[in-house]
Backbone:
């Protein structure tokens, strides 16, 4: 026949071989989780330090937006806590999966840094730059 299934013209590729996630993946995931927690603590503290620019408002409250400034204090810690929750879920579900989980805390660090950048931008908008 013209198109036999075992024709050498169109070979069928073998199925992909998945390497199971080993103990080194768990170690890297835990190490990146520690980095995530440390980054969250440090960046949350830096965001609080940025809020100390509220002194530049002086006696005239119309120069600043205190509501926006007060709301920014929760952005970085919330991003960190959500990321830690996702890492915890990934670690709990890890034994039944063959997939690697090291990327989850790395994504969490990126979310935390993004939350800090957003908080910093909002602080700049809420508080004037001291001259």
Residues:
């Amino acid at each position: 026949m013209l198109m036999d299934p075992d024709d050498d013209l169109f070979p069928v590729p073998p199925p992909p071989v998945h390497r199971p996630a080993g103990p080194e993946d768990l170690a890297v995931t835990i190490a990146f989780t520690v980095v995530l927690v440390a980054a969250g603590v440090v960046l949350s503290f830096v965001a609080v330090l940025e809020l100390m620019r509220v002194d530049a408002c002086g006696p005239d409250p119309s120069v600043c937006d205190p509501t926006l400034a007060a709301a920014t204090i929760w952005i970085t810690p919330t991003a960190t806590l959500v990321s830690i929750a996702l890492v915890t879920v990934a670690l709990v579900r890890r034994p039944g999966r063959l997939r690697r989980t090291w990327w989850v805390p790395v994504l969490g660090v990126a979310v935390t840094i993004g939350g800090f950048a957003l908080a910093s931008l909002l602080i700049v908008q809420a508080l004037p730059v001291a001259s």
Summary: The mean pLDDT is 82.
